[in-house]
# Entry
Amino acid sequence: MLSRHAQVQTLSPASRHLEDLFTGQKQAFLESPNPTLGQRREHLTCLMEILIRDQEELAAAISADFGNRSHAETLSAEIMVSVEGLRYARSRLRRWMRPRRAHIGRLMLSTSAKTEYQPKGVVGIIAPWNYPLLMVTSPLTYALAAGNRVMIKPSEFTPRTSAHMQKMFGEIYHEDHVSVVTGEADVGIEFSRLPFDHLLFTGSTGVGRHIMRAAAENLTPVTLELGGKSPTIVTRDVDLKMAAERICFGKALNAGQTCTAPDYVLCPHDMQDELVDHLRGSFTKMFPTVGDNDDYTSIASDRQYERLQDLVHDARTKEAKILEINPAGEKMPHQSRKIPLTVLLNVHDDMRIMQEEIFGPLLPIVPYDSIDDVIEYINARPRPLALNFFDSNRKRIRKVLDHTHSGGVCINDAIMHVAVDDLPFGGTGDSGMGRYHGHEGFATFSNIRGVYRRPRWLNTARTLYPPHGSRLQKFLHRFTLKR
# Structure
């Protein structure tokens, strides 16, 4: 079997730069394997300050990559969330780094044990196009807090943002500490084959499977932040206007191009029409116009735009009812890549829109009769990244929490749990594995090492040493019988 270093040599000649970066970071880590608290805080502070400094340039780059990205959405959902995450990690870093004393049992009298957090080494981050800054800075925050070196492969679909991050990070970090690698999909493939000490990938479930296969060749531990069809449940006991407003915000943010956005709504049969009316009212209030409204984000690429149009066409041919909420009745040319919130009724499982993650402003509504039907419906499908539940009945909320699985849950809200720094973020099953954010993020990028110590002058374990006589038998008898 090839060694981890030898496996790097199998990279194609075109990706030799990747090998050089990785080797440089590995060597730098070996020379300085455990940055101090002060050094780590400085690494986080530099990142926070340059994000604040370059926020307008970053917003412009992201908007140019999308065709139009709402300036306010970029500042709130990417810059502000990134900066708050950095502040949160920096203020708690001393506590996170502190060793934790472990309990010692009766067999270990006179000894001590503790857990220590040490950096893993060189971490790889593969980021998606939908939040091209946040999905880099968020895992980077915790990788740096844990004391690692980091290589980043941003999406090839946001080249302007990637180029600015490469320039920006180059100002504050040496490339043997943090480096950004740009390029097309072939570079991403080579990147995933590097023998990282940890690899984090954010993207689709299908690509996540390929990433995991590549990482397995090096026994690289992975964190996979995937997607899936996140359900939103509405019950009779909820204020429907409130629910519609919050669902609308979660679905319209970034034009639905968010992994935790409501994918479809489960609603009582006789409340569908009322829910649609409230969704129409909420969307109209938020976006009186769509086509000429810079607050409403475009679909990020022609490829994604055509995919969403195909989902609508497939549903229409299979007799779904399509309700486009277009308050000003605008005609939106293909070039704008604007799609207003579109509600779909009479959907069923044979439609592609009920089989694939939507990742856009299309919202199917699925009717139900009882909460048991809802639980059965959700559990019959792959486990989602997020579950949103609008209800005021505590017993019913507890029942849904106890009988379903998802990466995260919002009660009487949608999407906002992602912004809570102290909540672990991640998926389960088809929606991913592993967690980051909060202490869990620090732990993900750390080797949690157990350290056991016995004093030189006392050895109470001699009773266990051979030859095994009656003394050991008596000890074992007393130990196993004592409760």
